[in-house]
Amino acid sequence: MSETTDTTPTTQDHEFDVKARTQAQLVVRRFLHHRLAMISLVVLVLMALLAFAGARVWGYDHARIPQNNLESYNAPSLTKPAGRCRPIETVAVPTNTDPGVTTTVDRLAPAPTTTIAGATGDTGDWRADFIAKYPRDHDLSCAPHLFGTNQVGQDLFAQTLRGTQRSLLIAIMVAIVSTTLGVLIGAAAGFFRGWLDAVLMRMTDLILTVPYLAVAAVLGRKVSGDTWWVIPLILGGFGWMGIARIIRGEFLSLREKEFVEAARASGATSKRIIFKHMLPNAVGPIIVNATLSVAGAILAETALSFLGLGVKSPDVSLGSLVSENQTAFSTHPWLFWFPGLFIIVIVLCVNFIGDGLRDAFDPKQNRVRA
Amino acid sequence: MLRLIIRRMLVAIPMLLVCSVLVFVLVANAGDPLEALRGRPNSQQAIAQRTATLHLNKPIFERYWLWFSKMLHGDFGIDNKGLRIGPQLWRAMGTTLQIVLLSTILAVCLGIAVGVISAVRQYSFFDYSATFVSFLFYAMPVFWFAVLLKVFGAIEFNNWLENPGIGTVGFLLIGLLGAGFTSMLFGFKRTVSKRRRLIAGIAGFAGTVLVCLLVDRFLADRTYFRWIGTVNTTDPRFAHQGFWPRLGDHLGHLLLPVTTLAVISYAGYSRFTRASMLETLSADYVRTARAKGVSERAVIFKHAFRTALIPIVTVVALDFGAIFGGAIITETVFSIQGMGKLFREALQKDIDPNKAMAYLIVTAINVVVFNLIADIIYAKLDPRIRHE
Fold this sequence. Notes:
The structure holds 2 protein chains of 2 kinds. Chain A is mainly alpha-helical.
C-alpha cells in the first residue's frame, strides 16, 4: 500500500511545491497507480493483439477442415504435428500434353525458378495457383496445434483466436449500444423530470420485469449466420436499464448544483446544459459502467450460445466454442479448457479494470491500493 | 405500511398488464408455431387443429384477450403436444423453487459471513483471497462451471466413493485449510500476537489431520454407492423406498445445481456485503459508538452490521425474483425438469406460444412480487423511508 501525494520536494524555502493537475490528469494518475488494474489492462491489450493480429499470421484458419481425416482430436502440443508437416509436396502438375507429370514443390521456398512446359492454370503459373488455392493449408502447415484440434481437425488455437475476436467485438458493441441508450434515457429522465421521468422509469421497470436471457432467446431465434450483429443489438437493447438508473440519479443531484443554475441563468439551452455541463460531470459512472457491461456482455453472449442462439458455425465465438465442446469434456478436455480459460481471463481483466476505474474516478480516494 | 403496499400494488398491476401485452406480441412474432408441421406430409388436419387451439386465424389482440381471460382463471391452455400446461407449470415451479431457495440460503449465509470478515479486516490476506475468489466466480460462464462441477464434483467424486480414502496430499491440503481457519478464528482480534496465531494454526493443523485420520479409518473397508446425481432431481430406483433413502437421493441430486447457483450469487453477495459494511464502518455514528467505549464486537454487529444489512436484504429479494427465471442454464446442464426446461421446450423449432407465455408471465409476476417484497422489507428496516 503506498501513499501517493501530489507533492514533490523542490527547494529549501518551500518544503513542497503543489503542482496543479486537471481532473482528468488526477484520474489517469490514480488509475496508473492501481497495480491490479494496470496489469489487467496490459493482459487484455495483449490478448486483443493476439486475437486480431495473431489470427492473421497463425498457420491455420479457424474454419478450414483438413482434407485427410486422420487429424481428428489432436491433443495440444508444442511440437510439429507428426507425419504431416511436409513443406515439400509431391503434386501432380496438370499439363496440356501429359497428365501424368509430377513434381515436388517447396511451399516455403520463393517462387519456383523452373517452369514446366505446357503447364496450365489461370495465370499460367501452376505453383502460384496451387498456393493461392490453399492459403494456410492444413495439410502443409508446420505450425504445432498449440491447443489441439477438434473432431474434424480444426485447429483450436485458430478457433480460440477467432472466437476472442468475435466475443470482444460483440461485447464492445453491446457496451456502446447499452451505454448510449442508458445515458440518453437516464439523462432525459433526470434532467426533465416530471412526466417524462415517470414514463421513462416505468419503461425501465417494465423491461427489468422480463428476464433478459428469455427475451434475448426469443428474439435470437431469428439470428442466422450472416446476421451475428443482431446479437449485440439485442443484448444492448435490453441491457441499458442499470446505467439509465445510475445516470438518472446522477443527473437528479447534478441539476441542483450551482454551476448548472449559472448556466441556465446565462441562457444556455437544455441540450447545451446536458451535454456540455452535466455529462462531463457524470463521466465517471458512465465509463465504469460501460467497462463492466463489457464483462457482462461476454458472459451473456456465452449464455446465449449455450442455448443455441448466437454466433453460428463455421464462425465461432468463445461462448459457442465452449458450448459446442461441452460434451467432449471427459474425453478431450482441452476443447473445453482453453476457450473457457480465455473467457475467464478476459472477464476477470475487464472487471479489474472497471474496479480500478471506479477507484480512480472516486474523488474521496487519494490512497491508492497497491 | 399498508398505504405503501397499496401504492406499490397500484403501480405493479398495470405494469404487469402492459408487460403481458408486450410479451404476447413478442412471442407471437418470434416464430411460426406451425413450422415443423408444414414440412410433414398429410399434416393438413394437424395444422387445422393447432390453428384452432391457438386461434391463429384470429387477430392478435383477440388472441391476447382469449389467452388473458383464461389465464386470469389459472388456465394456461394446452401445449403443442396437447397436454395441459397448468400441472406442468406447477411441477416445474416446485422443482425450481427448491433449488433456488436452497442456493439462495447457502449464498446469503456464506456471502454475508465472508463479506463482513473482508470488510472488518480490509486489505488483509483473507480479504484479498476472498475478493479474488469472488471475482473469479463472477468471471466464469455458468455452464462452464456447471460442467466442471459435473465432472469433478459428481463423476470423479462418485468414483472416489467406490474406494474412498484420503491420500497424503489430501491430508496436507485439508490440514492447511484447518490451520488457516483456526489461526483466523483465534487471531481475529488485531491485538493477538503473531506467535499465538502461529500456535493456533499449528494446533488447527494437528487437529484437522487427526480428524482426517479418523475419517479415513472410518471410510476404509466400506463401499458406497454413487451418491451425487447429475441428471434430474430423483433416481427412479428410489421411488419405492422409505422416506430417508428418498430424501438422501434427492439431496444427492440437488447438491450440484444448488452449488452452481449458490456460487454465482455468493460472488455478488460477498462483494456487496463488503462494500456496504465498509461504508457503514466509516460512518460517524460508528466512530461515536467506538468513542463511547462500546466493545468492538458490539460496534460491528449491533451498530454497523445492522445498517449494512438493509441494502443486502433488498438485493437478495430482488435477486430471488430474477434468478427464478434465470436458472435456465443450470437446469439444462443438470437436466432438471424446472422452469428453465419448460422454457427451452417452448422454444423448439415450432415455437409453443402458450408454454412460452406461461413461463414469461410467471417469471414476470415473480419479479414484480419480489420487487414489492424488497420495497416492504426496505421500508420496514429503514425508518427514513416511511416518512417519505
